[in-house]
Write a structure and sequence with these properties.
The chain has helices at about 30-45, 60-75, 95-105, 160-175, 195-200, 220-225, and strands spanning about 5, 15-20, 50-55, 80-85, 125-130, 135-140, 180-185, 200-205, 230-235, 245, 250-255, 270-275, 280-290, 295, 300. By secondary structure, it is of the alpha/beta class. It has a single domain (about 5-300), classed as Metallo-dependent phosphatases (Purple Acid Phosphatase, chain A, domain 2, 4-Layer Sandwich). The strands form 2 sheets. A 9-stranded mixed sheet has the order 1-5-6-7-9-11-10-8-15, with helices on one face. Strands 4-3-2-12-13-14 form a 6-stranded mixed sheet, with helices on one face. The chain binds fe (ii) ion (FE2). One of its GO terms (molecular function) is hydrolase activity, acting on ester bonds.
């Protein structure tokens, strides 16, 4: 299938929708309700790209259900991509098998770069502006499942080989474009999400824990060093949707999009949107659309909870 090149609109903007944790499980009314909502958000927002940040499906019918969960994206004719969550292939099939099904679906622009060595489906999507120059790049990273280091346990970390791949991709992009920024997506947050919540002003809701790795593999530091990464957005912690800035990089959560997984009765499902501008590389706009018809454009500001103990 021919891949579509991503381009800024005539007005210089590009809109990304992040869907996360749809948890399509039993093909029942709960799941059908999730799909109906996603259809509405797509119709209301008309994004230029949709990034699905994992846990799209759950359980033993994952291969059967993935097409049903992704149906609204295919119907909308929008380019879309995907990164794995910890649950997508937890009970059945391999990452490769599920990803093979995604690759056959209309509109899918993700791919598996074997150069990343670890995980499956690590990829980068350049968005071109005037004269075909790359101005923004969407990165999709597989944040894994459980930590293979038994002495540590907990959730997996993005490996040093994946980080080296990320850095190499950026070096390659630097050869063709002197000025571009990166917005990265993955299912599980980097450990620094805890620092942004503790020490910086944050915007939005934190009603969940931090399901991030217990050890720090240096992914955030690499993002700081590369000088291009401006945002890293996650899923996984269903009842968190806040974001904040740490040393110039915005770290934040999407909005849980599906009804199949855990959540809270009074916590609306939704989607997070990002508006990138080809002439604004230092920052971006983000907001949420909710299943109750409301938008979250100016989320509640939360003052830092602690002052750094600098000794
Ligand atoms: Fe989840």
């Amino acid at each position: 299938m021919e891949k579509r090149e991503l381009k800024f609109r005539q007005d210089g903007t590009f809109k990304v929708m992040q869907l996360t944790d749809i948890h399509y499980t039993d093909d029942d009314e709960t799941d059908h309700g999730s799909v109906r909502q996603i259809r509405k958000w797509l119709a209301a927002e008309k994004p230029d790209l949709v990034m699905v940040t994992g846990d799209a499906v759950y359980g033993t019918d994952n291969l059967k259900n993935i097409g049903k969960a992704m149906a609204p994206l295919i119907e909308a004719g929008v380019p879309w991509s995907f990164v794995f969550g910890n649950h997508d292939v937890e009970h059945h099939s391999s990452r490769k098998e599920l990803f093979g099904i995604l690759e056959e679906m209309p509109g899918f622009v993700g791919y598996h770069d074997p150069a990343a060595k670890d995980g499956y489906g690590n990829h980068m999507l350049p968005i071109r502006g005037r004269e075909g120059k790359v101005r923004w790049v969407i990165a999709g990273i597989d944040s894994g499942n459980r930590n293979p280091l038994q002495a540590v346990g907990g959730y997996q970390y993005v490996s040093r080989r994946q980080i080296a791949w990320y850095e190499n991709q950026i070096r390659d992009l630097e050869k063709e474009s002197e000025a571009f920024s990166v917005l990265a997506f993955q299912h599980m947050a980097v450990p620094e999400i805890q620092d942004v919540w503790r020490y910086e002003k944050c915007y939005g809701v934190k009603r969940d824990g931090f399901g991030c790795p217990l050890v720090n593999s240096g992914q955030f530091l690499a993002a700081l060093e590369d000088g291009h990464t401006k945002g890293m957005f996650f899923g996984h912690d269903h009842v968190n949707s806040f974001w904040g800035k740490l040393y110039g990089i915005t770290l934040g959560y999407g909005r849980i999009s599906g009804r199949g997984g855990y959540g809270a009765e009074d916590y609306p499902r939704g989607a997070r949107l990002f508006v990138l501008k080809e002439d604004q590389l230092d920052d971006f706009e983000t907001y949420e659309i909710l299943d109750n018809g409301n938008y979250v454009r100016d989320p509640w500001g939360q003052e830092p909870r602690a002052i750094r103990d600098e000794g």
